[in-house]
Design goal:
globular, seven-stranded parallel beta sheet, Rossmann fold, 374 residues, alpha/beta
């Protein structure tokens, strides 16, 4: 099959980008297209696939902070036409599903755009420019978003929680294929300096819905050490919190291997960090919300926090005894989310869509110019 993979923007080291890497491994030799590509801010493996970028004025600015382009990306993706392919596989939480093609289009949806449907969770109060732009253009963007979603041959949700949001936003019934853990426990490790002997691990970016400030305050009250991986949030001053910033995969393996467990308090659509920790035999203490409900089994591979009240989170931290969990049982459960399972399910669905399209012998698309890339 000739497969074209389209992603919103490659300018972060997040869960969605890890899923794109899994797609590229599933379909070797496929084309990779993105609205923006910043090699310094995303995973180095993307360079091997030579991503093609959409023509976009001011791209240098949006590649520094993709939120600045929320009202611009849509037009660029709507103009993009992808041809000479058997199928277009879109990895989208915003724009990739807007591309046009005469081939079947399968959308792997990480979440309907948060800035359109979950603005309070997504945008910080200080991000006034984004709020102002969305207040002016939000209606048009929602109409375009709905049209793009309904142009897909098949929709995939990454979790049951996102599947319900897809039904609510688009009136589309999706297939659910959970993403794989993005980092294998097998591989090289490299130590991270300044890390205490016993600690819980939190991995997040500086987004409001990640609730990092709640985790920090709660660990201080509970007198438990927390190592925070990620960037984009203010400096932290606490004897119980160590911020290590961005790390590479070798350092991340080292941290997973040596932590007591993973702390996950974000309002996540799926949430990769608990299952990544599980693949190392580590339990998770997770918010009883969203995708965590599908991956964390109380008493088997973790425990739940009932809500984000700091006192509740602090109490959960004090009672979280990582020694009562069986690492072997946790690892066995994690295999459900291994890369092989993900690739098999995704490939099976894509092959079925292509076969059905060939059998039908029909396609839909209005005439548009060929996609130009740089």
């Amino acid at each position: 099959m000739r497969v074209a993979v389209v992603h919103d923007y490659l300018s972060a080291r997040g869960g969605a980008e890890r899923v794109v890497l899994a797609m590229l491994r599933t379909f070797p030799g496929c084309r990779l297209i993105a609205g923006a590509y910043n090699p310094a801010k995303t995973f180095p493996d993307f360079a091997l696939h030579r991503p093609k970028r959409l023509p976009l004025r001011g791209r240098w600015l949006f590649e520094r902070d993709y939120r600045l382009g929320l009202t611009v990306y849509g037009k660029a993706f709507k103009r993009a036409v992808i041809d000479d392919t058997d199928i277009v596989l879109c990895s989208s939480s915003g724009f990739a599903h807007l591309v046009r093609t005469d081939a079947p289009k399968v959308v792997y949806c990480h979440n309907p755009p948060r800035w359109l449907y979950q603005q309070d969770e997504y945008l910080r109060r200080r991000f006034g420019l984004g709020r102002m732009a969305l207040s002016l253009y939000g209606g048009r963007l929602r109409r375009d978003d709905l049209a793009g979603a309904r142009s897909a041959t098949c929709y995939i949700a990454n979790s049951q929680a996102v599947a319900q949001r897809i039904r609510d936003a688009y009136d589309i019934e999706p297939v659910v294929i959970n993403p794989p853990y993005g980092i294998s426990p097998d591989g090289a490790e490299r130590a991270v300096s300044g890390v205490p002997g016993e600690f819980l691990l939190l991995i997040a970016r500086g987004r409001r819905y990640k609730h990092v400030s709640v985790a920090v305050e709660a660990t201080q009250r509970a007198h438990r050490c927390l190592v925070v991986v990620g960037s984009g949030f203010p400096q932290m001053s606490s004897p119980y919190v160590v911020r290590v910033g961005a790390v590479d995969d070798e350092q991340l393996r080292w941290l997973y291997r040596r932590c007591e467990g993973v702390l996950a308090v974000g309002s996540e659509d799926f949430g990769l960090t608990p299952i990544e920790g599980h693949s190392f035999g580590k339990p998770a203490l997770a918010l009883r919300h969203g995708g965590y409900l599908e991956t964390v089994v109380e008493g088997l591979n973790g425990s739940f926090i009932e809500n984000l009240d700091v006192d509740v989170v602090s109490a959960a931290l004090r009672s979280f005894d990582t020694t009562v969990f069986d690492p072997a049982a946790i690892e066995r459960r994690a295999r459900l989310y291994g890369p092989a399972n993900f690739s098999a399910r995704l490939r099976g669905l894509v092959e079925a869509v292509v076969s059905q399209a060939k059998a039908d012998g029909s396609s839909e698309m209005g005439g548009s110019p060929r996609l130009a890339t740089s």
